[in-house]
C-alpha cells in the first residue's frame, strides 16, 4: 500500500522539512485503533524529541539461530562451543548493501544516528516528532492510559520509504503500546520476626516463609561459596525497583549467617538508571537481589537497572539491555528478569526482534530466564475468551520459569502463568512433551489457547511467601521470586562447570527437554486459575504428570543436576 497523505499534509502546513526524495511509502506496521485503555489526547507536540530505535535487516538471522541450536543441543558436535562476540556479530551485522542504503537515507535527511548495538544492526535516532512524522509517514500522537493517566507518544501506523524497504525491519517505539504487567502481587506486610534457620529440613526451614535455607533444603542447593572469577549472574531491574545494599546486608546477617554480610552487587545503569541507595524501597528489586546474592553464594551479581528514560517503554528497555550485554566481552552467564508484557499487546515484528537478541545472548553462552507471570493463563482485556500468554516467556530462546507453592508436596501455584504463544510455533525441543500433554489434556480449555504455539513455562520453582527485607519483612509471592532462585541454581552449576574446565550451561531448553528434565521434580498437583475479572475466575490449566502449562517440566534438584552433568 502506498501513501503520500502525510507528506501532503505537511506541505500544506508549510513546514520546512525537505520532503524525502522518494515519495513512495509502504505501510510497514499499523494498528486499526489504539489498544483498549488508551485514548488519544491529541497530536504529539511537533518539537518534542523522541528516541527511535531502528532495527536494520541482519545479514544472516537464520544462521544465528542455527548456530544457537548447534551450541545448545547436547546431540550436536558443537554443544557448549559458544560463539565469540565477533562470531555472533558476523551473523547479525547488516549487509554492506543495507548499510549503504541506510546511510544514504540518513544523510539525505540530515540525521545523526548512533549505533546502539555492537554489530550495527540497531541504530538510534533522536528526532523531533514533526520530523519523525514526515520521515515515516506517521502520525505521532499523545495517548493516555485510562487507569493511570500516564501518557505515551505513539503512532497507529508508520511507513518506510522505498529506499529502506528490505533494509529496515522495524522502527520502535511506534505502534507498540506499553502495557507492562508488573509481576508483583499486592504485597502483604507482616509483623517482623527473625527466622533463624535451625534444623535443616524443609518442615522447619520453610515453616515461616520461604528463606534461603528453605530453598537450600527443598532443592538441595549447597551453601558452599562459588569460586570461579569468570562466573557471573545478571539481574534486570525496571520501574524504579532499586535494590539497597543495607537491606541486603541485613538479609544476609539474618538468613545467611554463614556468608560475609557485606557481600555486594554491582549496579549498571541503562537508559538513565542509577544506583539509588537512598530512594524508598519497591520490593521487586530487593527480592531479586536478596534471592540471587543470598542463594548463589559468592557469585558475582550485577544489577542491570533500566532507568526512567524508557519507563513508558519496557520493551525498549529490554532491547537496550540486551544490546548492552552483547557489547560486553563477557556478558553475564545467567540473566534473570521478573518483568513481562502481554504478548498480544506487542507486534510480531517487535517481539521477534527482541527474541532474536536473546538468541544472540544464548549463542554467546548466557542463560536467559524470565518469570512466566502471575496471572495464571491470563486473559485478554478485550474480554474475548482467549487466554493471554506473556512475553518474553513465549520467545523460544528463553527459559520461562513458573511457580509452585507449599513444600510437601510442592504444588502448582495458581498464579503461575503458562500457556501457548500466538506468534511463535512449538519449537522442536519441546514438541514431544507438548503433544503428549495435548493428547491427554488438550481438550480442557480448548479454543482458549493456540495449540500450535511455543508452550511455556519450561520449568518452575517455589513462588510463595518469600521473606524479603526492606528493611522490615515483606512476604513476597510470585514467579518473580521463582526466576531468581533458578538463576542462582544455574550460576552455582556454572561455577562447578567452569572449575571443571567445561563451558557454562548457556541456552538451556534443548538440553532441558532432552536430558535435564531428569533432574527436575515433576509437579503433578494444583492448577493455575484465571483471575482477571470477577466474571472470569475459571480454572486454568492443571499440573499433570509430565510437562504442563503451569509448572513446565517441574522444579530443579541441585544434587541431581550435579550428577547428571557429571560434576
Ligand atoms: C551526533 O551524535 C553524537 C552522539 O550523540 C554527538 O556526539 C555529536 O555531536 C552529534 N553530531 C551532530 C552533528 O549533531
Ligand atoms: C516460626 O515462627 C514461630 C512463631 O513465630 C517460631 O516459634 C518458630 O521457631 C519459627 N520457626 C523457624 C524455623 O524459624
Ligand atoms: C564482577 O562484575 C563486575 C561488573 O561486571 C566486574 O567489574 C568485576 O570485576 C567482577 N568481579 C569479579 C571478581 O569477577
Ligand atoms: C577466566 O577466563 C579467562 C579467559 O577466557 C581464562 O584465561 C581464565 O583461565 C579463566 N579463569 C578461570 C578461573 O577459569
Ligand atoms: C497460532 O499460532 C501460530 C504459530 O504457532 C500462528 O501462526 C497462528 O496465527 C496462531 N493463531 C492464532 C489464531 O493466533
TrEMBL record:
GO terms (BP aspect): proteolysis
Catalytic activity: Release of an N-terminal tripeptide from a polypeptide
Keyword Transmembrane: no
Gene Ontology annotations for the cellular component aspect, listed alphabetically: extracellular region
Compartment list: Secreted, Extracellular space
Binding residue positions for Ca(2+): 522-523, 546, 548
Cofactor note: Binds 1 Ca(2+) ion per subunit.
Peptidase S53 domain boundaries: 209-567
Record keywords, A-Z: Calcium, Hydrolase, Metal-binding, Protease, Serine protease, Zymogen
Cofactor(s) annotated in UniProt: Ca(2+)
Superkingdom to which the source organism belongs: Eukaryota
Molecular function GO labels: metal ion binding; serine-type endopeptidase activity; tripeptidyl-peptidase activity
Catalytic residue list: 284 (charge relay system), 288 (charge relay system), 480 (charge relay system)
Enzyme Commission numbers on file: 3.4.14.10
Pfam families membership: Peptidase_S8, Pro-kuma_activ
Purpose of the protein: Secreted tripeptidyl-peptidase which degrades proteins at acidic pHs and is involved in virulence.
Protein name: tripeptidyl-peptidase II
Lineage of producing organism: Eukaryota, Fungi, Dikarya, Basidiomycota, Agaricomycotina
